[in-house]
Every structure is written in structure tokens, then in C-alpha cells.
Amino acid sequence: MDIDDHRMGSSEPSLVRPYSLTAGRTRPAVELALEALVASHPVAMERQFELNNLETSIVELCRQSPSVAEIAAQLGIPIGVARVLVADLIEAGHVRVSATLKDDSSDDERRELIERVLSGLRRI
């Protein structure tokens, strides 16, 4: 089975084992919170030739600055796999993590973040 089967909208269950997507790694190289917002670097799509299909899907999703939980939900992959793959993309310079909340964040910003995380978790 090909990694393409993990792309959004795949209706059939995948036979690809999660550890095969991360080369057996279970810990991300960069510590990522579930609610961490991830954004693509502007030049990331120019370097798309360096990526496999699943990584390309993640970079494309990151144009909308989703959370790590939303990436996992939209691609239908386990959260641990998403964390490892996103961390790899951060280290390679394809995506970056935005600060989630600061001490001076407003109640509206906090509420919006909680709603986005809950929405992403419901999709998992």
C-alpha cells in the first residue's frame, strides 16, 4: 500500500503501519504541543521535490496554519505520527511553529484556540 492512501478523503482503511511512516521513531525531534499552530514557509513548495507524498500533504495543509491535532485529523494519521513528521519538517525548514498563547493573550484568543483544538480532536 502506498503512502498516498493517507491523503485526505481516503475512505478505505490503511494497512500502512504507523511506525513505517516514521521509520520506527516514536518521539519527535522537536517537542510539539497538540495545539501548536504550524505554518508553511513561503519557499517550502519550491522545495517540494525533497518530500514524499505525506510530507507534501502536511506542507500544503500548513498554508492554513492548522494545529498539530488538526493535521493528524485531516490526514487520518495517529497524533504521534503527525508530531514526528511535523518535527522532521520543522528541522528541514519546510514549516515553522507559531506561538500558541502568550501570557497577555486575550480571552477571545484563548477561546478560539480551545475551539480549534476541540474541533481537530473531534475529527480524529
Explain this structure to me?
By secondary structure, the chain is mostly helical. The protein has one domain. It has helices at residues 18-21, 53-61, 68-75, 79-91, 107-123; strands at 37-40, 95-98. The chain has a two-stranded antiparallel sheet. 27% of the residues are buried.
Summarize this, please?
This protein is mostly helical and 124 residues long. It is built from 5 helices and 2 strands, in the order αβαααβα.
The sequence of SSEs as H and E is HEHHHEH
User: How would you characterize the largest beta sheet?
Assistant: 2 strands, antiparallel
Overall residue-averaged pLDDT value: 78
- Name the helicity range: 40-55%
Strand order of the largest sheet: 1-2
In total, how many domains does the architecture comprise? 1
In whole angstroms, how far apart are the ends?
22 Å
Poorly predicted runs of 5 or more residues: 1-9
Number of H- or I-type helical stretches: 5
- What is the molecular shape? globular
Helix/strand/pairing class, anyone? mainly alpha
Q: Beta-strand percentage?
A: 5-15%
- Output the radius of gyration: 14 Å
Number of E strands: 2
Search tags:
about 120 residues, mainly alpha, two-stranded antiparallel sheet, 5 helices, 2 strands, about 40% helix, globular, disordered N terminus, DUF742 domain-containing protein, DUF742
